[in-house]
User: Which sequence fits this backbone?
């Protein structure tokens, strides 16, 4: 698939492709989509970056903000993340990035999104973590009204955070009960740091009945997924694709209705055992009956769209509208919404995909 600079409308990119693929891409772009795994600080278009830092050229952006097409590991991938975070240290910059992301989602056909970020990373300019969440929540509310895209927020602790920092992130959930803030996540260098320092934060989230998701099975194998499920007790796993290495774990995931937030291109970019799209286990996971959906992860570090991911799944595994409807319906069931909201989204998806 042809690449372009972030910030260009998706449809402008398809003119270089064959007529058959153009028709497919246009169709994929127009279909409604659910995205559950999306990092705010790693999804900045060049347009947003240049607005916040005019000295950054497109060449700088592609070299410093976009991760290598094939990384040696997750740690290398994450070395590009601080450039974006560094630009998001004021109320105005947070607003710019949220608005930019929603503009991308409109073009991509996303109708519901759960956006995750780590509030403690955005305090270097003097904002409190509480104020960071307030700013992002307000900007999301504004863009929801402007675009019609429904959204919720997930707060991330990070693997390298201390137990105190992790618990402080969890406490923000209680501060924002009743807002769009609905869940706790843990992200970061999975291979470099165990979950020990974060058990208390996830216990706090459980005690106050907040939703929980957790990154695992990306930088480490199936043992990491099992450990994360056991120690943190999330209902969803971010990535989790290396669960395929352990049949007993797959059965556990199915039995306990654990949903996998799969990000195919990011996995190909990071995971050594997934050298090519053809090696990705998403099709095997789907056929085994695992609940999963397709996500982009980070639209800067991994310069993709959901429409592009759908196209690659169609080309690589022959996925059709039926697959995309099913995985989107799985995503709806796994959302951190109430049952009435889930029903409305499901009806909208069925109408669009079967018309």
Assistant:
């Amino acid at each position: 698939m042809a690449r372009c600079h972030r910030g260009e409308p998706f449809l402008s990119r398809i003119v270089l492709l064959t007529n058959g693929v153009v028709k497919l891409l246009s169709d994929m772009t127009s279909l409604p989509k659910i995205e559950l795994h999306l990092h705010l600080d790693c999804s900045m278009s060049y347009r947003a970056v240049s607005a916040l830092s005019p000295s950054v050229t497109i060449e700088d952006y592609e070299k410093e903000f976009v991760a290598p097409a094939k990384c040696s590991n997750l740690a290398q991938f994450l070395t590009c993340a601080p450039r974006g975070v560094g630009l998001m240290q004021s109320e105005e910059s947070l607003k710019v990035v949220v608005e930019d992301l929603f503009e991308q989602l409109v073009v991509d056909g996303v109708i519901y999104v759960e956006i995750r970020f780590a509030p403690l990373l955005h305090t270097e300019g003097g904002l409190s973590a509480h104020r960071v969440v307030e700013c992002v929540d307000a900007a999301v509310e504004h863009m929801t009204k402007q675009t019609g895209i429904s959204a919720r927020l997930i707060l991330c602790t990070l693997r390298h955070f201390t137990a105190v920092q992790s618990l402080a992130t969890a406490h923000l959930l209680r501060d924002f009960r009743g807002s769009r803030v609905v869940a706790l996540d843990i992200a970061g260098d999975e291979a470099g740091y165990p979950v020990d320092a974060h058990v208390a934060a996830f216990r706090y989230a459980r005690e106050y009945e907040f939703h929980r998701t957790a990154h695992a099975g990306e930088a480490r194998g199936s043992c990491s997924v099992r450990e994360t499920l056991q120690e943190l007790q999330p209902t969803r796993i971010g990535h989790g694709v290396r669960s395929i290495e352990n049949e007993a774990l797959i059965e556990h995931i199915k039995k306990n209705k654990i949903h996998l937030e799969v990000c195919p291109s990011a996995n190909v970019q990071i995971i050594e055992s997934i050298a090519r799209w053809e090696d990705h286990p998403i099709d095997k996971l789907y056929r085994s009956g695992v609940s999963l959906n397709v996500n982009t992860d980070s639209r800067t570090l991994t310069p993709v769209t959901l429409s592009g991911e759908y196209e690659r799944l169609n080309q690589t595994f022959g996925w059709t509208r039926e697959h995309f409807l099913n995985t989107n319906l799985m995503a709806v069931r796994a959302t951190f919404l109430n049952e009435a909201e889930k029903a409305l989204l499901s009806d909208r998806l069925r109408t669009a995909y079967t018309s």
Notes: The chain has a mean pLDDT of 92. The chain has one domain: 29-348. Residues 80 and 279 are 25 Å apart (CA to CA). The first strand starts at residue 33 and ends at 39.
